[in-house]
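Could you help me review a protein record that somebody else here produced? This is what I was given.
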Amino acid sequence: MKNKSITILIIVLLILIGGITTYLVFFNNKVDDTKIEDTKTETKTDTKTDTTSTDKYDFSSYETSDIDLNKESKLSITKQGVYNLSGTLNGYIEINTEENVVLSFKNVTINNTSGPCINVVNAKNVYIKLEGENTLTDGSNYTGFEEADACIYSKDDLIIYGDGILNVNANYGDGIVSKDDLEINSGTFNIISKDDSIKGKDSVSIETGTFNIKAGGDGIKTTNEEDINKGIITINGGDITINSTTDGFDSTNKIIINNGNISIDSGDDGIHADGYIEINNGTINISGAEGIESTTIKINDGTINISASDDGINSGNKRSDYQVLTEINGGNITIKMAQGDTDGIDSNGDLTITGGTINITGQSAFDYDGTATYTGGTLIVNGEEIHELTNQMMGPGGMGPGGMNGQRMR
């Protein structure tokens, strides 16, 4: 009886030990499975992100057509695809589709004596890839084109990239126009235009590239003034040279310059935005009636050289949805003014300087109507370092009644 009890006890213990072992093995495997699944999920997400950025211009799934333009007088594109173009076209390209179209230029010449060289009536996006040297020349009069007013005209988004050259001779009006967003990511552009050279209604963005612009109007421009989130020029890099009859840059809303080498010789403002201008870096050389003009101007860094016959930097009330303010937080700014009623920095609102080096040569260094705040940076006026913001008002010698009032000590 005693031996039987011991046997039963041993069997119970073995069952318990086996159950515990099975549970532990199952639990450990479950934990390991969870870790593996998490790792797979993270790897899949990362791979997807990399693929998206890498394949920005991957059109391998599109049907490809090789087209000899020498055989065409008008090339009509009505479906999605990549169109490899070569030769000379005495006529124009018209795009009318709901889909994406890629025009791959390789040593292409297009001449149209009576209209634009490219007319995008409708598309989802139009991409122009540049290889070799390409030249587009329109006529001084357009016949039979209701809306087109540019050598390259698109009613929808236009994206240009590649390592080639694009020469644009715009004899009728503008050079390159999108009535939506215009994005330029690389390439060399030589543009001569009767009116504006590069224009996007909702936006113009430039990543990099070389630009030689001679404009009878504005150099680079946006026109949307209804939407505060549109009408924006963004410059992230590139070598940009502009000779313009009116403004170098002109925006109905906002201009953001993050980098680049920019040289502007303008008949009016070098850089003009109705709403807001922000400069974060880059080298900017301006010669014009006014250097930089907007409602709000914020300079955080960069090298800026301005030679102006009117104000060097001017904040005025041009849009009610922005504060009238000039704010300088850094950078190296040199302003040379012409004689007369001119100001180096003129704010019709507030003036704030927290850093940077500002070197002004002229009769009137600062003119502000609101509050001036000076907490940091180096101020040099006519070769002499100063430590306060003097308010130069109208009057004899640029000093009106109370001309020295409102000084803000450093």
